[in-house]
Amino acid sequence: MNTNITTRFKQTITPWLLVGLPTIALGFLLLLQANKLLTVFQNDWISQGIFLGLGITAAIFFYSNRFRFLLITFLVYIVGGIVFRMMNQLPFGESFAFDLSLGFYIYGALFFGGFILAFALLRWRIASVLWGLLLLALLIVQITRTQAIYTGAELAIIFLGIFFYGFYIILTTELLRNIGSEENKRYALLLRKTTVGCSILLLLTLIVGLIFWKSFNDLADKLAQGHFDNKDNSTSMTKRNKDGSMANNDRLNLTGGLSKNKTLVFVAHLNNFMEDGRTPNPLYFTAFYYNKFDAESQSFMADDSMPSNDLFKPNPAAIPLYFNKMDTTVIRNSKGNLKRKIASAEIYKVTLGAEEFLAPSTAFLCQPISVPKDYQNQFKSAYRAQMWISELNSAYFVYNGGNTDMGLEMFQQERFNELRKAENYSHEDPAFMKYFTQYPQGEAYQKIDRLAHQIGDNKPTVMDKMLAIRDYFLQKGPNGKTLFQYSDNPGLPGIPTASKLDFFLFQNHKGYCAYYAGATLMMLRALGIPSRIAAGFMTVDRSSKNPGWYWYYADQAHAWVQVYFPGYGWMDFDTTVPDENTQQAPQPDGTPPLGNLQTYFVGDGTITNINKQTKEVDIKLQRFIIQEKTFDANPPVEIKTDASQAKVTMDTGTVDFSKLQTGMHVTAASSAETLKNIKAEETNQPNELLKQLPSPVPVDEIKIVVPESEKKKNQLTEETAAKNATWVSVISVLGAILVLLVILFYTMPYLVFQFLKSKAKKSTYYSYQASNFYLNQLGYSRTTESPNSFAHRMDGLFGTNYEKFNNIYQKYKYSKQELSAEEQSFSQQFLPDFIKNIQQKIPFKKRMISFLNPFITFNFFGKK
Amino acid sequence: MNKYLAEISNQSSTSFWKKVPFSWYLLLFLLATGIVFWLLKPPAAEAGSSVVFLYRFVQKFVWITAAIVLAFSFLSVLITWLLFFNKKNSGNIKAQLDGGDDNRIKMHLQSSMKPVGGFIKLRFVFANQHASQILLLEPIPDPKSEKGFTTYLLKTALPNITEYDLEKLVFYFSDFLQFFRFPLSLDKKHLIVQTPEKKDWQNPQIRPQKTQSETEKVYSNRKSAGDLLHFKQYESNDDIRRIVWPLYAKTGELVVRQPEIHSQYASDALIYASFYNKLSIEEGTHLSLKMLDFYKNIVYTSFKKLKDDDEFAIYLTTDQNSKVPIPSENEVKDHIANCEWQRTRSLKQIGKKDNISLLIVSSLDDPDEIAELAQNESIGMEILFVPLSEAFSKPSKKAWISWIFTHQKNNQYVWDLLRWRSNPMRQQILENESRIQHILSLRKSSLLAS
What we know:
The complex is a heterodimer. By secondary structure, chain A is α+β, with helices and mostly antiparallel strands. Chain A contains 22 helices and 26 strands. In chain A, strand 20 and strand 21 form a beta hairpin. The model of chain A is unreliable at 227-234 and 398-403 (pLDDT under 50). Chain B has three domains: 2-193, no CATH class; 211-257, no CATH class; 268-449, no CATH class. Chain B has eleven helices and 14 strands. In chain B, a hairpin with a 6-residue loop joins strand 7 and strand 8. The model of chain B is unreliable at 5-14, 208-228 and 261-266 (pLDDT under 50). The chains are: A alpha+beta, B alpha+beta. At the A-B interface, helix 5, helix 6, helix 7, helix 16 and helix 22 of A face helix 2, helix 3 and strand 8 of B.
C-alpha cells in the first residue's frame, strides 16, 4: 500500500516538477504583462497566477492517474457552471455581483485554461509545439500593442527564454511519454535524460544567442525608432522615416512622457489674414485625423474608412513640378459651406519627408514648386497647397488666453457667436453621427461621461458646451493657479492598467496635447457632439518680421480637437493649456525663402536624349504649362532644352546633372525672361503654342519626378526580396532535398532492381543477383536452404526455370569450364521470363508494396 | 503461431511512419510553424513599419533556431546510425538474448554509440512482420557481460503465454527531441517465450502418499547402529563414492550405501494438467486465448506453490508432454507456455493414473470423465478444478468506476467481461463448470464421510 502511494506520488510529482512548475512560472510572467496591458485584469496577477497554477496542477494529477481527459474536463466545466449559478443566487449588490461575475470568469478561465494546457502538453505532442508558437505570437502582439521600450539584452532574454522553454517542453513531455513512471528506477533515467537534454538546449541557446546578439540590438533600435525617441516609456508626435526625414506619427499615444526636439521641419507661408487684410491669421497644419480610440492600448488612431473623408493626402514627390493634383470631393465632404473661403500656402520642406503633405484643413490641391536658388541648400523641396478653410478657424485660442489683444478677443467672440447659430444635428446622417460620437465602454470612461454631463448639460449650444470644456481646463485650483497644467512628462498612473485619461482628469491634472485633446474628445462625444482629433503642427506666430511666414519645429507637432458644426464644417479647438516653456523661449526663426521667380514655362515629359557636353536635354512633352495655364501635348511633342544653367533636383534636394537618364520622367521649368511674353491662349491645338518657344528652351530647373524615396523603397523592396529570397530559397532547397531524399529512399528498391536488370543483360552474375534480389524483395529469401533447393521451391511456386538457371550459374561461378552457347543463351534470356512468371502469380499491389520497402533491400545487401 | 501474433497490437513495422527517418512530429512542427506565421502576417498597410521588421525578425529567429536544433538532432542521429550500419555490414554486430525472470529478456549487444542525449530503441519483429511495441534500450550493469558488449533488460509485454518466433530486431536511433528516428534491422532467430506467472490462487492439496510412512520408518531405523539394512553388495555400475569404506576395512566386503531413494513416485508429487477441449471452443479467438492464459497461470501457480513448500519433489506433465515429467521450474514454464487446447487426448487416455497426485482440469474438460476419476476410490489423486469463467471475473464497483474515469491497463478486464457475456459458448461453459463443481463437491463429501 505504501509502495503504491509512493509510486502514485512520484507519478504525479515528476511531471509537475518537469512540466508544471516551469509553465506555472511562465504563466505568472504572462499574467503580469497582461495585467499591465488590459484593465479588465485589475492588476491581480498573483491570485490569477495561483488559479492558473491550480488548474495546471489539477490536470497533472488527473493525467498522472490516467483519468480520461474528456470526461474530467467536462466534469470540471460542469462543477464550475454549478458554482457560478450558485453565486448568482446570492443576494449581492449589482455592482458587487458584476465584479464577482467578472472575477469568476477571469479566475475560472485561468483555472480551466491551465487545466487544458497542462493536459494537452502531457497528452498530445502537437500541444507542446503549438504552445511554443503561441508564446511567440503573444510576444509579437505584446511588443506591437504596447509602447514599452526594450533594450537588446531584454529582447535577447525574452526570445532566448521562449526558445529554451519551447524546446524544453518538447523534450520533457517526450521523455515523460517514452520513459514513463511505472518503475522506480525509471525516475533516475528520467532525471539523467532531462539533465543531458537541458545541457544540450543550453548550449544551443548560447549558440543562437551569439548568432542573434547584434540582431537583438538592431531590433531594439528599430522598435524604439518606430514608436519612441527616448527609452523611458515616452512617445513622440513625430517619427523618423527610413531616409531620415520626419513625419507625423500615425498613432497618438498616451504615455508617461513626450519627447521633443528642436529640429526645423518645414517653413510655410500662409496667405490667410484677418479682415483687415494685414493681420495674419495663422492656422494649424493638419496631417491626420484620429477618429478611433483603442481602449486596450489607450491610443488614438487614424482611420481611412471614416465617413465623409475630407482628408487630402497627395504625395508631392509624385506630382510633376508646377503641375497640380486636386481633389474637390474633400470640399463636399468637409460639409462646410458657411463662412468658408479658399486660401493658399507654400510649404518649404527642411526635414519633412518627401512624400509628406501638410496643410491647414481642408486642403484640396497640391502643386510642387521650385525652391529659390539661394535656399536650395536649406530646403529640399516645396509645394503650394490650396485649402477650403473656415474664416472662423484660428490658431489663436488658448495661447492668447491673457486677452491682451482686444482684436483677437473680439475675433474669438464673433467666432463663438457665429457658431452658436449652428443648427442641431437632427438632419445629419445617422451613420456619420454614430461614427463621430462612438464612445468606449468601461468604468473609467463612464466617469468621464458623468463629468462631461456635469460640465455641459446645462449649456444651451454646442459652442457653449465646447467653451465649458475649455474653461474646465482653465479653471483655477485652490491655490489660485490653474488646476490643469501642461507637462511633457506627466507620468503614468501607479496602477499600470488604470485609464490614463481618468488619471489625467481626476488625479494628475498634468499632460501634453494628447491628453487634453483626448479628454476633450471624450467629453464632447459623451455629450453626443461629433468630434475628432486632428494632428499636425501647431502654428506659432513668433516673428513679426515676416508676416504670414511660419516656422515649424519638431516640438510643434501637436494634437487638437475638431468639432463638427452643421453648415460650418469641422472647426479647430485647442484645449491644451499653454506650455510656459514654449511661450517664454521663442525659437529664433530664420529668413523665409523669398525670391521665387515667376515661372513662364513648365514642361512635363520623358527624356529622349541627353547631350552631356552641351547639357542639352530633349524632352518629349506630355503636358506643359505656359503662363500658369496647363495644356496637354497632343500628340506628345519633343522639345530641346538648354539645361546648362539648370539645377537638377529630386525631392531629396539638388542632384548632379549626371543623374539624368534617357527615359526618365522629368519636369522642366523656365523663368527665363525671354519667355516672359509668350502667350497662352485657349486653343484647340495646344502644340502650336510651343512654337513660341526658342530651341533650345532655357530651363532653370529639371526635376526628376520619381522621388528618391520611391526608388529607395523599390531598392529596399528588392533588397528585402533578395534577402527573403536568400533564406526562403535556402529553406526551399533544404525542403526539396529532404523531399527528394524521402522519394529516393522509397524508390531505392526499384532503382536498384533496374540497375541490376540493366547489367543482367550481359552478365550471368547480374542475372543471378537480379533474380535473387527480386525474389528477396517480394519476401522469398533463401535463408537456410541450399541454392538448389531454394530454386526448386521457387519453380514450384512460380513455374519458372530457376533451378536450371541456378545450375548454370553455379557452373559459371565455380567451374573452370566455360558455359556452352546454349547455356549462355539461356542465361541471357532467363531474367525477363522469370520476372514475367512471378508477376503472373503475385498481384501488382503486393509487388508495389514490397518494392516500397527499402529495409528489405538493406537486408539483402547486409547479408552479403 | 499466427493466432497469437494477431493479438500483437503493434503490427506496424510495415507502416509508413516506421520507415521514414523522421517522426510525424517533425512534419507537424514544420506545418504548425508555417500556419502560425501565415496567421501572423501583418497587413500590407503596415509595410515598412517596425511591425513588419519585428515580424520578419521573429520569422528569421524561429527558422534559424529551428534549423540549428534540427540540424544538431539530425546529425547526431545520422552519425550514430551510420556507425551502427557500418558495423552491421561488416558483421560486427551480435545480439545475444537470454530469458530472464518475469518475462524479461537480457540482451547483450555490441556496444554502440548513442545519439547525443538521444535514444536507441528496439522492436522485436516476429514472423510475418508482426512486431512488438518499441522498447527503450537503457544499459544495465552486468559484471558477467563480455568486453565490448552492453547488456539491456527488456520487458517484452507480449500478449499471450506462448512461444514467439523472433525473426529480427529493429533498432531505432532517435535524437533527444525525437524528431528523427532512423531504423536499422538485424536478423535474429530466437524463440521468445512468454511464460506463465504466479497468481493468487487457492493452495492446492495433495493426498498424502504411503511412501511417507516408509520414509519415517527408515529414519527411525537409522537410529540403530550397525544396521546393514540399507547396504548392498557393490556392483560394477554403482557409484564408488557410495562404498562404505569403514565396513570394507572391517569386513573386507565392498558394499555401497543404498541411498534413501524413495520409489520413483512414492515420495514425489506428480501434477497432471489437462488441456482437453471437450466443448470444442474455437481456438485462436480472443476469449479462448484469454482462458488459456488464465489456465496456464493457474497450472503454473499450483506447481510453484507446491514446489515452494519443499515437502516433495514436484513434477509436472500434461497431455502434451511426450517425455518424462518435468521437475525444473524453468522447463515447466516453457512447457506450459507451449501448451494449447487440444481435442484428441482426454482424461481417459491418461496412463498410470495411480502416479498422479494432483489432476488439474478446466471447464472445458469432460465432466463424465472427471466423475469417473472422482468416483474411482482406488485412484488417490486430488482433483483441482479451474473454472475458466473466473478469467472474466465480475469487476468490483471500484473497477467499474475506474473504467469509467480512467484508462488503466486493468480496464481491459472490463472489455473482456463484456465479450465474455456476449459469447455464445458462455452458457455451455458455465453449465460444464456447474456439473464439474457438483461432481467434485460430492466427492469431497464422500471423502469426508469416509
